[in-house]
Write a structure and sequence with these properties.
Blueprint (H helix, E strand, L loop, with lengths): L20 H19 L3 H12 L1 H13 L3
Helix pairs in contact: 1-2
Amino acid sequence: MTTELKPEKETKMNVQIQNSFDAVYGFGMIGAWVFYIGRATNLQERGIGFLKGLAWPAFLVYDLLKFLNKE
């Protein structure tokens, strides 16, 4: 008689590390929506503000490169 415990099935744990850039993009998108939609005066500007909120990193990088290119 043996007292060894043998698991019937091996279990593997998959651990995934979440990327913190998702949270940064989410907060930035909400902030951009507040900024652009808050300044809108009509429905068309609100629609454009919504789209700008989705693409805020492109505006950020463009303005940063424009600033760094100044002589």
